[in-house]
Structure formats: structure tokens, C-alpha cells
Amino acid sequence: MDNISEPLQSVSTLPDVSAAIVKTPTPGTLRAAFAIVWKDIAAELRSKEIVTALIVFSLLVIVIFNFALQLDRTARENVAAGVLWVTFIFAATLGLNRTFASEIDRGSFDGLLLAPVDRSAIFFGKLISTFVFILLVELVVIPVFSVLYGIALFEPLFLLVVVLGTLGYAIVGTLLAAMAVHTRAREVMLPVLLFPVSLPVVLAAVRVSQGLLAGVEWSRISAAFSLVVTYNVIFLAIAYMTFDYLVEE
Amino acid sequence: MEPASRNLRTLTYISAALFLVSLYMVFFYAPLEVVMGQVQRVFYYHVSSLWVGMLAFLVTFIVGIIYLRTGNLKWDRIAVGSAEIGLVFTIMGTAGGAIWARPIWNTWWTWDPRLTTTTIMLLLYVAYLMLRQGIDDPERRRRFASVYGIVAFVSVPLTFFAIRIWRTIHPVVIGTGDPEAEGGFNMTPRMVQTLLFSFFTFTLLYITLLWHRVRLERLSEHMAALRAKFVS
């Protein structure tokens, strides 16, 4: 019963927009965020409309790259990291397009906004569910890629870079998807808004991945790795502070 | 239609006059650089244009925050005007850089960190203007654009410090740079004076243009309101 009383308490704090910049997440916020994540995962388990489509899409992109670039053995090793990341960001962008669009098309977004919880709970819920979906896609794509291109990708550090780079992309992507969904040509607008903002993290992630695959020493790629981490921290803070202004109706 | 205020007109004439003086200084007052020759004179306006570009994006960032806090329309007019002017000056500065790079680096363009981050900055503010075009509801357009102005601004310090963090061939004339940079030189006092004067002129030009642009925006909002009143 206490999980009902707790969100109700935060009703009184909701209209206080001036405190938005210095707010701190409450336990209720976290619980609400995970409720959204759970709802998205349950919906996905029943409809299977996003993850399956993204996996098929990613595999098609890899096949297209193989023929478009006329990859032979050495060329494959040189461009592997780039091809993999382009595949990930294309798939992630398609997934992000659905993050808020699916809610708005069904009219359920107003329901989320009416819920008596902190608005950042919606951001974190959507961020985590999108991140989980993209990770699931990558979980299938990486082994297939590894087999098709003949490159061993299952190194802990490589996987860590994939996870962190994807997280950075998902943070900015979730923030901008909430914007793009209200524009006229929303599917086109999201990449236009998102690609330039995400370029630093993608460039850095590609450089680290490529360095790891080529086996260069860590000191030469550690700067790019810290850029990936810094990017995550900076944009998580910006998204947390500004998301309220995007859903203020 | 209200005419431009006396202050604005005076400022416009002053900017024009100062611009002529700065042209004279660039071409006749500043000495010829011995190694690079005449093409080095691009430098004064190249640096000044990009300075105005970054200043303009900083202004868009700051007024964006103020708009989100206060909801006052005038801040948003400054934000959009500043972003447009910043974009134009960044393109001008980049074009000037390319003209200089052709003889000095022997290429118009290279994917150097400084040039890459500048490109990202340009694309971000193109996206900023596209976002504004793409939203019909004016109140939402202002709100979203303010947030995007904040997100986009992260690229500006990244661009500014790019030549000071990464190994790059772009020279750092002010302060100390990478010894591998190609095309660096030491400025004589006359060169410093010319550069500072260009900085000042361009900054004043930016203020003048911004003022005109804000006035134009206010007039077009007025027109839209009148049209809505009489046409419907």
C-alpha cells in the first residue's frame, strides 16, 4: 500500500518548476522510471515490433556494407569498427524514433504526463528501455558480425566501449526524440538533430574500438575513451536539467 | 512600420566606418608576413569571424537559459537572431581558413580535429534553425529551440580548445601551440593592433546586425498578429 501513498506525496512538489534545476531524484522517481521500463518491455514482449525489426534491419545494413565497400580480408579488418558503429547508430535511431512516437500515436503519452511523478522519471524510464532494446539488438548483431567478418569481438574492453558509446547515444537520442516527435517531419528530423550532437561520442567510440581491434597500446586510445565517459556525464546532466521543459504542456 | 531608432542608425554608420578602417589596416597598415606572403592577411578576418561565430552561439546559449527561466519573448528573438548571425560568420571564417590553407597546407580541407569540431558546430546550428522551421506551435518552438541551443553549445568550447588539446596542424597564434602545427608565426606589434581592431570591429558589427535582426523579428511577429486578426 505504501507505494501508492508515495507518488501522491510528490504531487505537491510537481508545480514547483523553479526548483527543476536543482532537484534531486527521489526514491519514488526511480520506482516510477522502472515502472515505465517494465511497461515498455512487457509491451515489446507481446508485440515484438521493435527489437525484431531492428535486428533484421541491422543484419541488412551489414550485408549492404559488405557489398557496397567490396570488402576483402584486409579491408574488412580496417573498417570493421566503423561498419559496426554505423550499423548501431542507424538501428538506434530507428528505435529512438519509436520511443515517444509509439506513446503519442496511441494517446498514452498524456497518461504518462498526468502521472503524479517527477517528469525526469519519464526520461529515465524511456532512456533505460531504449538502451535495453538497443543492447538486445547489439547482442545479436555482434556475434553474427564476428562470424561474417571473421573478427573476434568478444573482448571485455571492446564490449565496455560498445555499452558506453551506446549509452551516450541513447541519452542524447532520448532527449532529442522527445523534441523530434513534435516536429512536422519527425522521422527525418531526429537524425538531423541527433547526428551532429552525437558525432563526438561516435567518433571517439569508433577510434577506441578500432584501436582495440588493431591491438594498439592503451595509452594511444585512452584519451578517446575518456571522451566517451565525459560525454555520457555531460549529456546526462544536461538531459536531466532540460527534459522537464520539453514535456511541459 | 516604425523606422529604425536613431541609436540603431548611428551604430550602423559607425560599424560601416570602422569596417573601412579595418580593411585599410589589414591591407596597408599590417606588415607583409615574410614566409606566407599576402595570403596571411586572411588571418585577421578569419579569426575575427570565428570569434563572432562563437560569441553568437554563446549568446544563443545564455538567452536560451534565460528564456526557459522567464518565458519572456524578447530573449527568444535574440536567440534566433544570434544563431543565424553566428552561422553566417562561422561559414565566412571557415571559407577564409580554406583560402589560407590552400597554399599553406596545400589543401582546401583536411579532417584535422579543429576543422572537424568546427564542422560539427556548423551542422549543429544548421539543425537548430531546421528545428525552428519544423515546429508549428510558436510557444513550443521557442521552448525546444532554447533546449537545443543549450545542447548544441557543448560543441563551442570543444572547438575552441580543440587546437589546445589534440595534436593538430592548425596553428595557435595566440598563446602556445603544438610545435607540429604548420603555418604558425609570431606577430609583430602592428599585426597585433590590426587583429585587435578587427576583433573590435567584428564584435560591433555583430551587435549591429543582431539589433537589426531582433527588430525584424519583432516586426514580423507584429505582421503575423495583424494578419491573424484581419484575415480570419
- Please state the oligomeric state of the protein chains shown: heterodimer
Shape of chain B: globular
Specify the biggest β-sheet of chain A. Answer: none
Structural shape of chain A: globular
Q: What is the helix tally of chain B? A: 7
Question: How many separate structural domains of chain B?
Answer: 1
Percent in helix of chain A: over 70%
Element order, helices and strands of chain B? HHHHHHH
What Rg of chain A is obtained from the alpha carbons, in whole angstroms?
Answer: 19 Å
What is the helix fraction of residues of chain B, given as a range?
A: over 70%
Q: How many strands appear in the DSSP assignment of chain B?
A: 0
Write down the overall mean pLDDT of chain A.
Answer: 85
Order of secondary-structure elements of chain A: HHHHHHHHH
Tell me the β content of chain A: under 5%
Query: Which stretches of chain A are low in confidence, meaning pLDDT under 50 for 5 or more residues running?
Result: 1-21
The N- and C-terminal alpha carbons of chain A lie at a distance of 30 Å
What is the count of DSSP helices of chain A, taking H or I runs of 4+ residues?
A: 9
How many strand segments of chain A?
0
Provide a descriptive summary of the structure in words:
The complex is a heterodimer of chains A (249) and B (232). Chain A is mainly alpha-helical. Chain A has nine helices and no strands. In chain A, helix 2 (27-47) crosses helix 6, helix 3 packs antiparallel against helix 4 and helix 4 runs antiparallel to helix 8 (186-214). Chain B has one domain (43-225). Chain B starts with 5 loop residues before the first helix and ends with a helix. Chain B is mainly α and 232 residues long. In chain B, helix 2 packs antiparallel against helix 3 and helix 3 crosses helix 5. Chain B contains seven helices and no strands. The chains are: A mainly alpha (249), B mainly alpha (232). The interface between A and B is medium-sized, with 24 and 25 residues.
